[in-house]
Specification:
The chain is of the alpha+beta class. It has 2 helices and 8 strands, in the order E-E-E-E-H-E-H-E-E-E. The radius of gyration is 16 Å and the shape is globular.
Length: 147
């Protein structure tokens, strides 16, 4: 089943179509298998639980780290004129998949859980600082600018 949404501002229109479970593919839990759209592509580098001065937030606390990561993502998206509604794909790099439930609870405070973005989670042996538990990159699509 597909679900198409259109979002317009004074100068842009974005249409995103979500295919939660394409034929022959099992439905995902908390993500969409395929999201397509037209417009301007935005790539957000992997965000980690660092505050604006570079200090680690929530050492040893998966939920606190996820909250900082999603706040950093929110700020990066805003810099591009985007919101979480424009995100079509997340990639999660986690040091322990056992933390995924805590990360998802926080993520669900930021995204539309009815039309979630596509996503991939990968367990890694370490991130660039040993106290970091999560890194998330995002891809978004903004509407094409109308003249």
């Amino acid at each position: 089943m597909d679900n198409t949404t259109t979002r317009s501002t004074d100068r842009t229109t974005t249409t995103l179509t979500h295919f939660a479970a394409p034929g022959g593919v099992a439905p995902g839990a908390g993500y969409t298998h395929v999201v397509m759209g037209s417009g301007r592509f935005v790539a957000i580098s992997g965000q980690v639980a660092l505050d604006e001065s570079g200090g680690t937030v929530g050492e040893g606390d998966p939920a606190a780290q996820a909250r900082q990561v999603f706040e950093n993502l929110r700020r990066c998206l805003a810099a591009a004129g985007a919101t979480f509604d424009d995100v079509v794909k997340f990639t999660y790099y986690v040091t322990d998949v056992a933390h995924l439930p805590a990360f998802r609870v926080v993520r669900d405070e930021y995204i539309d859980t009815v039309r979630p973005p596509a996503s991939t989670a990968v367990q890694v042996s370490a991130l660039f600082r040993p106290e970091l538990l999560l890194e998330v990159e995002a891809f978004a699509v903004l509407g094409a600018v109308r003249e």
